[in-house]
Amino acid sequence: MKKFNLLFLFSFFFVLQGFAQNDIDWVFDDSSLPEIYIVIDQDSLDQLFEPEGWYSDHEYPATFIFKRDAEIDTVDNIGFRIRGNTSRASQKKSFKVSFNTFVDGREYHGLDKMNLNGEHNDPSIIRSKLSWDLFDEVGIPASRSNHFKVYINGEYYGLYINIEHIDDEFVQDRFGGEEGNLYKCLYPADLTYRGPNGDDYKFEADGRRAYELKTNTEEDDYSDLASLISFFENASDSKFEKEVEDHINVDGVLRWMAVDILTGSWDDYLFNKNNFYLYNNPETNRFEFIPYDYDNSFGIWWDGIYPGIDWGTRNVLNWGHPDQSRPLSERILSVDKYSNRLQFYINELIEGTFNETEMFSEIDRIKALTEDAAEEDHYRTLDYGYTTEDYHNSFEEALGNHVTYGIKPYITTRINSAMQQLSVSNIEPVIKDVNFEVSTATGGFRLSVSAEVVDEDVPEIEVFIEESDQSFTLSAGTSSSSLKTYSGSIILDENIGDFSFYMMAEDEQALSSRYPNNSDRFLNYEFLASKNSLLINEFLTDNETGIQDESDSFEDWVELYNPTENSISLSDYFLTDDFDDPTKWAFPDTSIPAGGHLLIWADNDEEEGLLHTNFGLDNEGEQLGLYFQEDAEFFVVDSLSFGALADDISYGRKTDGDDEWVTFEIPTPGSANLVSTSKETEINHPENVVLYQNYPNPFNPVTTISYQLNTTSNVQITIFSIDGKLVQTLVNEQKPAGLHTIELNGVSLASGTYLYRLTTPNLTITRKLVLLK
Questions:
Q1: Which of 398, 152, 190 is closest to 298 using CA atoms?
Q2: Could you tell me if 203 and 279 lie in one domain?
Q3: What is the structure's pLDDT at 640?
Q4: Which pick of 149, 304, 492, 508 has the fewest CB atoms within 10 Å?
Q5: 206 and 346 housed in the same domain
Q6: For residue 30, what pLDDT is reported?
């Protein structure tokens, strides 16, 4: 058995340690073959490998070392144990690494767990990897995976597959939240009806619940699962077809079934009532189906389980267990449009990714990457006596016993038989991944809608607004095979108030569909009385020579504007540069006065002050959103996406609150927006006399006052107390046309509100400023 030199490794480690990357994708990069080293107390390891330790979930402290090429990371005090179901008794064990067992909240590149699967049933050690990659191809939320070489206390334990752990981190990444119930469903989880109460589904098998709640465990509330299963049991055929998509993501279920069928994965819900997760997504109020455990695929099968089944030729339209009920799949496939769609997806996979050219090329790539590690893997040979020759042959031919096909012959057989069994017809357009936002616009609000649509053709997509006679058509954008993207917008009728809408799609075959599928349901938007009044008014993404913050740094900034006649508190407001993360930065306890502006420093440095965000702005372009939270819901107040901007050029509304956005060669942070054709025009020939809001405001002790003259004129800038007494005269002389600035130093003034006034022979303008000491 191969050993490595611990002293040699550690000598490199102490030089190179440190997390070089921070994203999960780096861990799952399958372009190279990393190594994982586990260093654990020998007594702990001995206990782990004792028979009584196989089935224990007790985690032992250990050190985790990750090596990819020249990069080496370490994590001390991780939890380490054996994992799996039937594989726990195998010679080649599977392991779980936990980064947060002994250090609460700790993650490694975004992961709190790693599942290292030995794949002892699969002589090729790539079958599950192929399956996970197919799920990724069709857009199913499933685990990412890649291969590793694993060493424990200096001994090479073999070639492993790292399978992404499904937990609250997983659902947060895939669905944008983790508040919903996540159920791990293992044998005998057939989703058959046991009663109307949640407690009816807490039964145990093999010492654990068949439907094991993995989140919200303190509440232990199974009522949502009971409601789902009750619907499948009790809904009439017409009610089922109308409402099923309100309860579960049917399109996701059909895409999962298509991959399951083509990969010959029988240790699943369809055949073995096993190995899946259900997540009740609070964002959509329906369940998501998440696949799990795919080493028994591509021709792995024990005939004693149910004699006479050949997964390479089994009818794709009769895939489930011959003698047992599976309510989820049976009821969905009893609806013609869903049965047609499943066949469409199977055929699309065969014409796209699941064909000999694509699959064989990927198999050869993975084999070339991993074959040296597999040949050196002594533990690979122990459970079934697989030799090195067996390993190489397993890609091209059956090995007997449970290896009924080589991987490549299985793919060829499965494709040929499926094409004979399918009866592919035109499908109704499938509208999915709908997103919409409401933003301010001249005369009201703009509704923007985007969606993905699956169809053989390029359907027409129309949006209908219930509360008015308005409708609009979405324009087709990019497409990939049958998947097209659509988008469009409309200015809503003035004073429309809260509204709801739905979408209709019709293809060239006159086949149509509605979104939401249930004709009694709509997409709804609720205006909050005063919450949508605030506006993102102006921002600068690359401040090189402009305004400086309190520490005299040139930082990016965002300006908000309150166009109302009332002060607005910013409690429960959030600013973000990522629409998928609306709570990225919370405003402090402050407010914007009526007609006032507020400047926020987008410098990713909250320690600088209360109005400094935890993100910066990208001058290559990104998103900017202002959100309000009410209870657990988030409402868009204002938002936009923008492109690249030059240094010291701001982007803002043409005038305060205007719907038109323009660039400003002379930014106006903290004051009214005025645009002109060039710097020269702005400076030398302005159209109006303007007194800008001082900045910063409130201030201590220095603030800047800017004003603009449209002609050479005598001008006074004076400061008054709130009761009208003259405090100070800052300017009293003739000034040329253009933009002027002056500083007010309040070191000798008392805290409070003051008035500052611009006076010319033809005009007087007064504003307020606040000195806080």
A1: 398
A2: yes
A3: 85
A4: 304
A5: yes
A6: 96
Are 222 and 349 in the same domain?
Answer: yes
Residue 480 and residue 430 in contact, taking contact as beta carbons nearer than 8 Å? no
Phi-psi domain of 450 (left: phi exceeds 0; alpha: psi -120 through 50; beta: other): beta
Q: Are residues 289 and 189 in the same domain?
A: yes
* Same-domain check for residues 514 and 609: no
- Is the peptide bond prior to 698 cis by the omega test (within 30 degrees of 0)? yes
Amino acid type, 124: S
Which range of residues forms the domain containing residue 143? 23-163
Sheet order of strands, 622-630 included? 585-586, 573-576, 622-630, 633-642
The pLDDT of residue 8: 40
506 part of a folded domain: yes
Residue 11 lies in a domain: no
In CATH, what number is assigned to the domain containing residue 726?
A: 2.60.40.1930
Question: 542: which residues sit within 8 A by CB, 6+ positions away?
Answer: 556, 619, 645, 646, 647, 648, 649
Q: Are residues 437 and 408 in the same domain?
A: no
Share of the chain residues as helix, strand and coil, in percent rounded to the nearest 5: 20, 35, 45
Same domain, yes or no: 196 and 286: yes
| Cα–Cα distances in angstroms (integers) from residue 613 to residues 588, 601, 648, in the given order | 10, 6, 19
Give the integer Cα–Cα distance in Å for 597 and 267: 61
Sheet order of strands, 182-185 included = 211-213, 182-185, 276-281, 286-291
Q: Identify the sign of the CA torsion 725, 729, 734, 738.
A: negative
Domain edge (last residue) among 525, 543, 571 = 525
Instruction: Pinpoint the alpha helices (H) of 302-406.
Output: 327-333, 336-351, 356-375, 388-393
Distance CA 612, CA 603 (A): 6
- Work out how many domains the chain is built from and give that number: 5
Q: Is residue 246 part of a domain?
A: yes
Whether residue 442 sits in one domain with residue 356:
no
Query: Of the residues 525, 550, 583, which one is the last residue of a structural domain?
Result: 525
Q: Is residue 218 part of a domain?
A: yes
User: Tokens 């000999």 sit at which residue?
Assistant: 356
Which amino acid does the sequence have at 511? L
Assess contact for 113 and 165: CB atoms under 8 A. yes
What pLDDT, on the 0 to 100 scale, is given for residue 21?
Answer: 44
Q: Which residue has the tokens 């609460």?
A: 104
Task: Give the containing element (helix H, strand E) for 240.
Answer: helix 237-247
Element (H, E) at 165: none
Distance CA(770)–CA(4), nearest Å, equals: 69
For 478, how many CA atoms within 13 A lie in the half-sphere containing its CB?
Answer: 1
- The end-to-end CA distance of the chain, in Å, is 73
Q: What is the pLDDT of residue 675?
A: 56
Identity (one letter) of the amino acid at 632? A
Averaged pLDDT in 10-residue chunks for the chain of 773 residues? 45 39 81 97 93 88 94 94 85 95 92 95 97 95 97 97 94 90 98 97 96 97 98 98 98 98 98 98 95 96 96 95 97 98 97 96 98 97 95 97 98 98 95 86 77 92 93 87 91 82 95 96 75 84 88 92 86 90 92 90 92 93 88 78 87 88 87 56 53 79 85 90 82 87 88 85 79 80
Exposed (0-12), middle (13-18) or buried (19+): which is 565, by Cβ within 10 Å?
exposed
- Give CA 169 to chain center in angstroms: 11
DSSP helix/strand/coil, 433: strand
Neighbours of 144 (CB within 10 A): 20
